[in-house]
């Protein structure tokens, strides 16, 4: 069985036992060991269930494995002939999760 969840403006296809990396900002305090996602869009498998837009009562529980940071992204702006250049870097804070179970 698998589910499609929505967190941080993105959608993830998850199954029990999988590892996923999501943005830490949307989880709030990442100090908790357990995380529950209530925005389940679809549950697939033998009997697929679709939400309109969400499935009522469906949750996905996960355990926090570790916190890390993503790759550095360089934002470079330039306007030619105007002597304008700006360079800015960004690294996103991430949390690695192990999906424990999908409840309907």
Strands of the largest sheet, in order across it?
2-1-5-6
Largest beta sheet, briefly? 4 strands, antiparallel
Q: What distance lies between the first and last C-alpha atoms, to the nearest angstrom?
A: 11 Å
Spatial extent as radius of gyration = 18 Å
Q: How would you describe the shape?
A: elongated
Count of discrete structural domains? 1
What fraction of the residues are assigned to beta strands by DSSP?
over 45%
Tell me how many strands there are.
10
H/E series, N to C?
Answer: EEEEEEEEEE
What's this entry about, in short?
By secondary structure, this protein is mostly beta strands. The chain contains no helices and 10 strands. The strands form 3 sheets. It has a 4-stranded antiparallel sheet with strand order 2-1-5-6, with no helix packed on it.
Provide an overview of this structure.
The structure is a single chain. This protein has a four-stranded antiparallel beta sheet, with no helix packed on it. Strands 3-10-7-4 form a four-stranded antiparallel beta sheet, with no helix packed on it. Strands 8-9 form a two-stranded antiparallel sheet. The protein is mainly beta and 104 residues long. It has no helices and ten strands. The mean pLDDT is 91. The protein has one domain (2-103).
């Amino acid at each position: 069985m698998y589910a499609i969840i929505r967190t941080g403006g993105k959608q993830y296809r998850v199954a029990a036992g999988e590892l996923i990396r999501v943005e830490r900002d949307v989880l709030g305090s990442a100090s908790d060991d357990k995380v529950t996602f209530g925005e389940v869009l679809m549950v697939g498998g033998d009997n697929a269930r679709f939400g309109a837009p969400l499935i009522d009562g469906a949750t996905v529980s996960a355990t926090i494995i570790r916190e890390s940071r993503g790759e550095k992204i360089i934002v470079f702006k330039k306007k030619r002939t105007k002597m304008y250049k700006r360079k800015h870097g960004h690294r996103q804070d991430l949390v690695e999760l192990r999906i424990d179970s999908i409840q309907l």
